[in-house]
Specification:
Blueprint: E1 8-9, E2 13-16, H1 23-30, H2 33-36, H3 46-63, E3 67-72, E4 78-85, E5 100-105, H4 114-129, E6 134-139, H5 143-151, E7 155-162, E8 165-172
Parallel strand pairs: 5-6
Antiparallel strand pairs: 1-2, 2-3, 3-4, 4-5, 6-8, 7-8
Amino acid sequence: MNRNIPMINTARVTLSGMRPEDFERFVEIWTDPDVVRFIGGEAKTRGEAWDAFLRNAGHWQMTGFGQWAIVLQSTRKMVGQAGFFFKDRALGEDFDVFPEAGWVLLPEAQGQGIGYEAVQAAHDWFDRVIPGVLVAMVDTRNQPSVKLARKLGYTSLRTAEFLGTEVELFRRNGPPSRS
């Protein structure tokens, strides 16, 4: 089974499949305390980062969707990742059976609208290629990501506890109407 990972360009970022040469930057992202603060709170070891890096590649092959590297066009540097995945979190049939959206951005790229630009482009692709329900899980303390989820058309399902952290579970039934 061989699936091509689409490349998506916006005004400031490129979403691309992760390449072996992206791994060192991937490690930098996942060991940054400000990145992982609201995603489990613990930096990944190099080995855990490698497992996650390979899982990203395999996810595209198995499902036809996955996570892209977010690359700034101005510097050609990977500053995060965004996309979709399946992960059984044991949070219920109203959550676990749907593709989950996720996004991560280094602090140097936050607060500039880059995250929204990248994640919106990923959602536009999903809506064209694999339309349907999406879910997302956000640490309730991560208000920028809560705001982003709502801007993308997600509505709250409920709050839950996940790995000792209060999270908000979101659902998106399709693209929001743009008026």
